[in-house]
Amino acid sequence: MIATIVAIVAPLNANAESTPDTPDSKYVYNLNGAGATFPFPLIDLWRIEYNNDFDNVNLNYQSIGSGGGIKQHIEKTVNFAATDAPLTTKERELAPNTLHIPETMGGVTVVYNIPEIPKSGLNLTGKVISDIFIGKITKWNDPLIKDLNPGLNLPNQDILVVHRSDGSGTTFVFTDYLATVDPDGWDKKVGKGKSVPWPFGLAAAGNEGVAGIVKSTTYSIGYIELAYAFQTGMTFAYVQNGDKNKFIEPTIDSIAASAAGIVNRLPAADADWSAVSIVNAPGSNSYPIASFTYLLVYEDLKEVSKNKEEAKAIIHMIHWMITDGQEFSRSLLYSPLPDKVVELGKKGLSRVTYNGEVLWKYDGNVKTTETKTTDYEIPDWIRNNAKWWADGLITDQDYIKGLQYLISQGILKV
After folding, report:
1. Domains of the chain with CATH codes
2. Rounded CA gap, 326 and 337, in Å?
3. Is the pTM of this model over 0.85?
4. CA-CA 20 to 30 A from 51: which of 66, 135, 191, 238?
């Protein structure tokens, strides 16, 4: 039967897709972005890793908060912006033809500094968190906190609240959550947004600022992105899930679970994202204070780039971030984007033009079947099977079934 094998068929049934043009090596590109502190650790790692592969592209990203990033995007002073809060309807009017490209997912943690509780795992419900930040619960040994944490040594100490001073996507996610779980309290009295009228507390700029105050001040509480909590070794609460049957630790997997129910209902990149939210998502293992974070890109990059080649470099870098760059997410405790969200981002990037000229044509995964027949030396593993068959170590039927399988898979042609 071996003698009947005349060729090996190499079927190319791979999902072949185009990628944006590699930045032209004849030029040096200095690209500028600004905005959210929430994804800054990941963006900064991307900056380094992308430059390792494409050393003629330098990214300068200013971690100034989502509000600052949106402002610079509207003013067209950066090549792209990053935000954890999707553009509002009013902001879309000020920045028409803006694309939302999800870049990663993260979680907002409720961090605390209680010497008597040196480890993470203080259980808190959304309503208790709201009552703390609105000023209704002022002591760590309040009965409502004690009831959630039997056996913990909760001190009779005043709670010091710390919040953001700048326009912040992290604040948007956190207050979106509080408004959702406490509509009659937080939503009516404070509301949600990148900046809100905080009832009281200390203010600090950036995730870094809030983390710094909480870490250095006993009996304080604040909210920061998960990566900052881990990087600074802070203790954080387990928060009751949307189903109200479990307290959830913020992890990569519990954040990913929060997005599972929405990925099929996300709008196109050029549509309105103002109502998109994954806070308090259903599911037993869904961490309730989670969010996508986005890159904001103009559909026509002539508005914010020097020339067509720079515009193409911007598209290539962002494409790398949402594809190859996702492999770095877990190392910094961000959840990699689901495949359907990556696909949404690619389709968005395929809309980008320079002065009306499309920079990258993408029609999704184009399956190409190309059969190439060549003379091929029979591999050792086939020779060994033939020897085993000849030596009687496997039966005729075993050998024939093996060959039939290889033929059915297109690996052998007879």
Report:
1. 2-12+368-413 (no CATH), 18-105+285-358 (3.40.190.10), 107-249 (3.40.190.10)
2. 7
3. no
4. 66
